[in-house]
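Anyone else keep sequences and structure tokens together like this?

Example one:
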Amino acid sequence: MKNNNAVGILLLSDIFGFEDSSTRDFAYRLACNGYNVLVPDLFKGDPWTKDRPTPLLEEWITKHKPESKTKTIFESAKWMINEFASLGISKKLGIIGFAMGVAEL
């Protein structure tokens, strides 16, 4: 969502990914408060789903290396900064994340 107010937030999702309703709701609330919000796909189209058997969680985690997440985060932050620069506005950027916790599984 874009508000062009020169303040961006890179919102990092929990294991349920960017399409989870809680993540989307939080991003929407940030946008309604005047922030430009980007939620990258940290799991490359394969987020954890609540209907998967919990014993498969460890296997799923090993498929999603931290290095991949780091690369996606840096690329997303760079994109946001470049986007602001191309519009001639500030480069204010915050990065936040949250986790709903595995206990919900």
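And example two:
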Amino acid sequence: MAEDNQDLLRYAQEYSEKDIDLYDLLGVDALTPKDDIHRAWRKRSLKYHPDKAGEAFDADKWELFERARDILSDPNARARYDASAKAKLLRKQEREAMDKERQRFADDLEARENAHRQQKAAKEQSDRDAMNKERERLAEAQRMRDEEKKRQESAAQEMEDLAEARRRLKEKKEEKARRKQAKETMKASAAAGRTPGAANGVVTVPGDYLVDLGEVKKHYWELVCDKLRAVQAARNAAKGQSSQEEVQKAEETVQAARKRIHEAELKFQKEAMAS
């Protein structure tokens, strides 16, 4: 079962370089004697045995268990394995020590660089603070100049607004006077144009009485609705910001609606008297 000594030495060297822990594989340590090595091998490798594993048999795993047993059972191979592992461990420790030294050097260099950067940043911050203070001083001076300018502009605007308000008030009074005069004129004209005894609403006319207006025919109730809408429009024009021309046009619309109603009442009255 055991391989010759040269092969064991070669495998011992190979496994140590590959970091294959033969002790851990068999569940033993460096102080375990040869007899216990065999017992540990039988216990650990039992499930890998061809008869036990069956179709799941792993030849490489089984071979590794056997070589671990043979190397750790052979004094020379075990010594080679331990020496190689120790040498590798020593090299690792040396590398770690060198890495620590390099890291210490790098940390020291980084610390000096950080200190230099902090000093530089502190100076830059100080310069920025001084520059910001100067900017704030200039900004404050500009703000005061702007506020004074706005105050002067506001005062001037208030004077202009006051003058504009007076002008609008004057125009409003004049417009009100013109509207009042126009209403009085239209009332006088309407009173002069009416036939005595036939004012709108005096003659009772059925709502469905049909009136021939030439191009169209409307019922009496439609003429009344037209007049009401015209009156409301005229009131809105008189109360709003409408021009004198718009107010005049609205009043003319009212008079036209009243005239149509008046003519319809006269016609109905004549027809009623004739019958």
